[in-house]
């Protein structure tokens, strides 16, 4: 299983952020490749040179990076090819548009095709209805999250679910 953590732009910009992540990974039984740090696309390109350098240092640790709410921000697509991230989390706005017909489906398909061409994994956010899952699968998107699968749960429930399906997390 992956452990996904949202990171605020303020925290990400701190001088010791990479060292803190490294210490947290070293002090846990979680392999670095199972940790996914998520940030919004706006935060990822705000100070691109500094942010990209931090991202490269995190990736050197083996940590995975994700852009949360992809497509909802105002960043340029030109940054996408340079972003050292593994995962794009397709914003709920696009998933909501899959309920009907029209342009929204074309845009969503275009984002998925672009992500695949750039070697990025895509997770669709905000899935609430089976028709959305069906249409995402038709477009080749096989990962998703949303209320259709689970409402937010507490720590004990997460541990119970992970323990029931995955067993102990192996060490590095």
Brief summary of the model shown:
The chain has 9 helices and 6 strands; from the N terminus they run βααβααβαβααβαβα. By secondary structure, it is of the alpha/beta class.
Adjacency order of strands in the biggest sheet? 1-2-3-4-5-6
| Distinct helical segment count | 9
**Mass-distribution shape:** globular
Q: Major beta sheet, specifics?
A: 6 strands, parallel
- Rg over alpha carbons: 17 Å
- The helix fraction, in percent, is 40-55%
Low-confidence stretches: 166-172
- Beta-strand proportion: 15-25%
Cα separation of the termini? 14 Å
Order of helices and strands: EHHEHHEHEHHEHEH
Number of strands: 6
- Class based on secondary structure composition and strand pairing: alpha/beta
Average pLDDT confidence is 86
Would you kindly provide a written description of the structure presented here, covering whatever features stand out?
By secondary structure, the protein is α/β, with parallel strands linked by helices. The protein has nine helices and six strands. The protein has helices at 9-12, 17-26, 41-45, 48-60, 77-80, 92-96, 103-117, 130-138, 155-166, and strands spanning 3-6, 35-40, 64-70, 87-90, 121-124, 143-144. A six-stranded parallel β-sheet has the order 1-2-3-4-5-6. Strand 3, helix 5 and strand 4 form a beta-alpha-beta unit. The longest helix has 15 residues, at 103-117. The two termini are 14 Å apart.
Ordered list of secondary-structure elements with their pairings:
Layout: E1 3-6, H1 9-12, H2 17-26, E2 35-40, H3 41-45, H4 48-60, E3 64-70, H5 77-80, E4 87-90, H6 92-96, H7 103-117, E5 121-124, H8 130-138, E6 143-144, H9 155-166
Parallel strand pairs: 1-2, 2-3, 3-4, 4-5, 5-6
């Amino acid at each position: 299983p992956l452990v996904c953590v949202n990171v605020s732009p303020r925290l990400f910009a701190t001088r010791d952020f990479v060292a803190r992540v490294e210490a947290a990974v070293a002090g846990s039984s979680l392999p670095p490749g199972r940790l996914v740090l998520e940030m919004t696309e706006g935060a990822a390109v705000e100070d691109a040179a500094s942010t990209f350098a931090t991202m490269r240092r995190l990736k050197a640790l083996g940590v995975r990076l994700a852009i949360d709410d992809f497509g909802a921000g105002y960043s340029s697509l030109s940054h996408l090819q340079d972003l050292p991230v593994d995962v794009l989390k397709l914003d709920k706005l696009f998933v909501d548009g899959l309920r009907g017909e029209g342009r929204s489906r074309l845009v969503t398909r275009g984002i998925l095709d672009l992500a695949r061409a750039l070697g990025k994994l895509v997770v669709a956010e905000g899935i609430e209805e089976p028709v959305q899952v069906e249409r995402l699968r038709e477009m080749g998107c096989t990962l998703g999250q949303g209320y259709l699968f689970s409402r937010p749960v507490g720590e004990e429930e997460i541990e119970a679910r992970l323990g029931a399906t995955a067993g102990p997390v192996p060490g590095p």
